[in-house]
Structures are given as C-alpha cells and as structure tokens.
C-alpha cells in the first residue's frame, strides 16, 4: 500500500511511543503525589523519602546509556518488552511492601530501570522510522510524557484516596503492563540505523580472534632452546621447566587480560558509549541538561507538597501538575514547527528555554498564592516541553555524530 521508504506507515509507532513515554516518564514525574503518604507511613527522613519519589526519573536517565547499548545489540522491541516486565514487577512488589527497604530496592532499581529501557526504546525507534518528519514525530511521541504528567497525578490521588497508596501502586502496575501491547506495535524499520546495524557479538572487531595472540607468539621458548637446556643436569632442567611454566602462565594471563580489554572497547565502541570521550560535540552536549534536571526534579517532586504547605487544597495542588502537563504538551507540539520555521539558531532557543527551567528551583521556594503557582506551572511546563525534545533533535542533526541509540537520551 505504501512504498518502502514512506513514513506514513510508521505513524502507529508514534502512537505506541506516545503511550509508552506517558507511562514511563509520566509515572516518574507523578510519584511526588506519594511523597506525603510515604513520609507518614515510614519513619524515614524527608530527604530519603523525597529521593524515593524522584528515583524513577533519576534511574530512567541514568540507566539510558546501558539501555541504549542493549538496544544496539538486541533491538528496540525486545528491550521495551523486558523493560515493561521489570517495571510492572517492581511496582507489584512495592505495593505489598511493609518495610521501607522494599520500596527502596524495587521502585528505583526495578521500576526505574524498566522505565529507562522502555523510554530509550521509544526514543530510538522514532529516529529509525522518521527522517523527513523527525522533529514532528519526536515532539508528538515525547508529548506522551506531558500527557502522563497531566493525568497520572490526578489518577494517583484518586486511587490513594479510595484504595490507599498500596492499592494505588497495584492498579498503576496493571496500567504499566499495557506497555507490552505498545511494544507489539514497535515493528523495527529494516532501513533504520539501529535495525540494520545490530551488533553481531561473534563478529570481527576489537575482540575478534584476529587480534588475539597466537599460541606461537605467546610461547616464550622454542624447541631449539629446549634442546639446549636438555644438556644440563636434571635439577637444572627441573628449575628451568618451572621457570618456563611460570613465564607461559604469565603470558597467558596477559593475553587473556588484553582480550577482555579489547572486548570491552569493542562493546563501548559499537554501543556508542565511546562518543563521550571521542567526540567533542557530543561531550559538550552532555553537561547541558544538568541544571535543568535539578529544576525538573525540584518542581515535579515538591510542587504538590509546597502548594499544600501554603494552604492550597489537595485537589488544586494536584491540578498544578496537570497544568504542567498541559503546558508541556503545548511546548512539545510547538517544538516541531519552531524547528522547521528556522526562526533562530537551535542552540539559542535551547539556551533560552533551559535558562527558564533552571531558575525554576528558585521560584518554587518563594511562591505563596495559587495564581502565581499556576503561572509558574505554565512557564515551566512550556519551556521544558520545548527544550527536552529539542536536545534530541540537535543531537540527531549534528553532522559530526555517527548516530547511535545513546545520542538521543542525553537529556
């Protein structure tokens, strides 16, 4: 029906990615609603409970280089399926946890890592399937996170009020399992970067047999030397044989260590992780989101609690996160036309919106009235809706980078 190079047939992938991002990034951004419940339930410090509330987003981004390497080796769909199962299992176990350490182990290290695998797979498959309309498709797919931020806090608050936080986590884990259905729609593009360049672990490379030391080169002694030593006394032969064995054992260990090092270099090279120290453009992009990540963490984690602390009712405080989500969707959808219009350099736009998001950590501490909270939520949501997908587009459009799954997750 469509030509092999037509992008129309890939739009179901955008829909599946939209839902997956909403259930992963949106989940991590809405766990702040559970902060007060966990703080009252467990005798832990507010800092530790706050870290738990933000741990999913932290692990989502921190684990993304490893998830990108897995995608390079295994493909998008298997990684997304595995991530969905891990995330679902983590929430399911956490819902029945009676001790804080259960949540400490499951939410960051199971749900967070699982969400990272799902999120990374969706971001990569968009770059595989779209070239001409990449900015638009990327913006639509990423707006799923905004949709999740808009809906999941309200849904979570409703579930907490009716079923408690354990029942809420149990139901959310069932919702999270729907990523498995989305993964079914993520059919790999045979003409994409990742699908056509899956790494063959047994292929030639830095760790192939061609680069290993041959037994002849590794042996420190030849037969002529052995014949010369055979003329010595029995005790001398015995000591020399021991010395030869020790030397040969040392050489074998050196060869094995070199082989392991070469295989590690091969893995880092094929996975794209070596770009961190081999490509100056990529290395310069990586530090940019650090300040904005601080602003994101403070806003999404403490906005609800801060609003309640100044006397704003619970439902209105939950709606602030929904306002962030709506503004984020508008920013995501405006991102594609803004890039295509070429009204300014992408780096300039990126710097402006990053500055707005970065100062958000200061703004949230001085707000007192609800209208100012709403204005703050709109500015933060719109700016973050532009800068996050814009970072991926800047990376994808860089002419000096060899595209790999890790390049689209620097944010």
TrEMBL record:
- Positions of the Major facilitator superfamily (MFS) profile domain: 10-411
Q: How does it sit in the membrane?
A: Multi-pass membrane protein
**Keyword Membrane attached:** yes
**Its domain of life?**
Eukaryota
| GO CC aspect terms | membrane
Q: Which UniProt keywords apply?
A: Membrane, Transmembrane, Transmembrane helix
Q: Where is this gene product found?
A: Membrane
UniProt keyword Cell inner membrane present: no
Major location category of this protein: membrane
Q: Where is the composition biased (Polar residues)?
A: 232-244
Q: What is this protein called?
A: Monocarboxylate transporter 9-like
Recall the taxonomic lineage recorded for the source organism.
Eukaryota, Metazoa, Echinodermata, Eleutherozoa, Asterozoa
């Amino acid at each position: 029906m469509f030509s092999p190079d037509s992008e129309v047939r890939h739009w179901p992938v955008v829909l599946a990615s939209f839902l997956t991002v909403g259930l992963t990034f949106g989940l991590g951004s809405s766990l702040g609603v559970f902060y007060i419940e966990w703080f009252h339930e467990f005798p832990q410090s507010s800092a530790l409970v706050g870290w738990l509330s933000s741990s999913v987003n932290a692990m989502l981004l921190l684990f993304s280089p490893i998830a990108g390497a897995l995608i390079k080796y295994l493909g998008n769909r298997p990684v997304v399926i595995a991530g969905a199962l891990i995330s679902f299992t983590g929430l399911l176990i956490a819902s029945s946890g009676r001790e804080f350490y259960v949540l400490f182990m499951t939410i960051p290290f199971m749900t967070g890592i699982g969400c990272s695998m799902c999120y990374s797979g969706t971001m990569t498959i968009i770059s595989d399937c779209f070239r001409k309309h990449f900015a638009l498709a990327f913006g639509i797919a990423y707006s799923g996170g905004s949709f999740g931020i808009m809906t999941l806090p309200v849904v979570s608050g409703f579930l907490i009020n009716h079923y408690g936080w354990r029942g809420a986590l149990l139901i959310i884990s069932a919702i999270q399992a729907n990523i498995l259905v989305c993964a079914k729609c993520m059919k790999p593009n045979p003409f994409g970067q990742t699908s056509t360049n899956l790494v063959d672990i047994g292929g030639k490379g830095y760790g192939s047999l061609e680069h290993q030391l041959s037994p002849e080169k590794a042996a420190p002694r030849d037969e002529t030397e052995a014949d010369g030593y055979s003329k010595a006394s029995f005790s001398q032969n015995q000591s020399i044989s021991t010395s030869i064995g020790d030397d040969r054992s040392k050489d074998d260990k050196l060869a094995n260590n070199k082989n392991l090092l070469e295989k590690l270099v091969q893995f880092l090279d094929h996975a794209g992780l070596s770009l961190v120290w081999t490509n100056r453009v990529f290395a310069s992009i990586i530090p940019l989101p650090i300040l904005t990540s601080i602003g994101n963490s403070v806003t999404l984690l403490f906005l609800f609690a801060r609003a309640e602390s100044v006397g704003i009712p619970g439902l209105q405080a939950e709606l602030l996160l929904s306002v962030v989500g709506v503004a984020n969707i508008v920013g995501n959808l405006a991102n594609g036309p803004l890039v295509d219009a070429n009204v300014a350099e992408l780096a300039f736009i990126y710097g402006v919106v990053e500055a707005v998001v970065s100062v958000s950590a200061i703004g949230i501490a001085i707000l007192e009235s609800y209208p100012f909270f709403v204005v703050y939520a709109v500015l933060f949501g719109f700016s973050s809706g532009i800068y996050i997908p814009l970072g991926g587009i800047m990376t994808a459009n860089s002419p000096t980078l060899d595209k790999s799954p890790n390049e689209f997750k620097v944010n």
